[in-house]
Amino acid sequence: MGSGTPPRSGDRRLLLYRSSAGRWVIAATVLGSGMAAIDATVIGIALPTIGRDFHASLSTLQWVVTGYTLTLSSLLLLGGSLGDRYGRKRIFMVGVAWFTLSSAACAISVGSGQLIVTRVLQGIGGALLTPGSLAILEASFAADDRSEAIGAWSGLGGVATAAGPLLGGYLITAASWRWIFLINVPVGALVLAWSARHVPESRDPTMSGRIDAGGAVLATASLAAIAYALIEGPSRGWTAATVVVSLLVGVVGAVAFLAVEHRSAAPMLPLDLFRNQQFAVTNAVTFVVYAGLGGVLFLLPVVLQVVNHYSPLASGAALLPITAVMLAFSARSGRMAATIGPRAQMGIGPVVVGLGLAMLVRVPQGSSYVAGVLPGVLVIAFGLATTVAPLTATALNAVSESHAGLASAVNNDVARIGGPIAVAVLPALGGISGLSYLHPHALAHGFQRAVLIAGSWCIVGGVLAAVGIRNPPRRAVREEAERLEILSHCALDATPLRERG
What we know:
The protein is mainly alpha-helical. It is built from 18 helices and no strands. It folds into three domains: about 1-210, Up-down Bundle (Growth Hormone, Chain: A), CATH 1.20.1250; about 215-265; about 270-500, MFS general substrate transporter like domains (Growth Hormone, Chain: A), CATH 1.20.1250.
């Protein structure tokens, strides 16, 4: 995804942060990207209720989650390229409209199959609107005001992501799970109205050549096929023809994707970036940490409601400390990395996250929230706060300045892909399949195994960082931290950051 070329500072169309026009643009982009981010997190709170309404197996619930997240992550880079080429405002508004209509379709689903299909459609809309929300800010604001605008967007987006599960839990408790989708309809209409009236159009004049649509199709198809094999294998049998064929299709599709990207003049994913050890290791750490976290966050709300008898509202509030700690400490973590280099934090942080995940083994034992849930959640939060700022900055610092925007987008996409892959595989590793999630004892036992496995993944990530990450000269680290906004992952489901002007 190209980072785009912001308008010149002398262009009279550039906005000031404190101007009325600037605030309208921030409001539209925050609400738009917030819808997509919230829908990736709030769905976990609704899974037990959806499962009861549709008499759904665990694999069906896994598809309700991964249908959205896999589609979003597979097409995110393509969405950014389309915005750079055809107009960021135009593609953003198309994405918002698509997302809004598919949200309405989710809300009126009469069966699990229809819900899965409409969630896939939601993912397409999310992939179109998400990269454009930040790119619009970069292209619309004057250089001196751009960092303030992006900071406001990041902070408000973090608040929206934190409030999402809480709001979703309230809507499910007070009304129905369908309202977590219906609420997007008036919000989407508002974003479209504000965008049409207040958001300026921009595009990257340097964009030329073909869009890598083939790469996007192959990436989506291969990930979907692999996910199918991982999700359906436990219930259908690993030797079932559909599972074996799906796995083979996924592997062949992945190889074809790499071949297409290698030969493409304008690849969606430039493979040359991964020849840089620092960049490759950073993305490997990103993948395992977000995989461990994403897999557990899929199971935890289900366990809290089925085993611990939490209401949807209470289970939505259970994870609020993670976002609160990250918003409070991520900036300090970034400054620390600028002083001592990223290696120590990237080595220690994932290990702390892994220990926090392992501490959740106490959750199904009937302890109170303070004794059973909160300690692990807080340890996870401090581990993430230690890790994510230097993780982002290191991915950007590993490449040339001209590739910083693309490196950020790739690193963010790797984080997004880790979650759905873990959602597909972690329940099977824990021994949870079929309708066993409806039985408290079986679910509790499987969850305890799953959190230990996920925790071990994160610890492996810490070891990878300790061995493979190198600290640049201190002066270079400080300059990079000042040049880049390193808070792009403050929210658990963040949008890729690009270069500051």
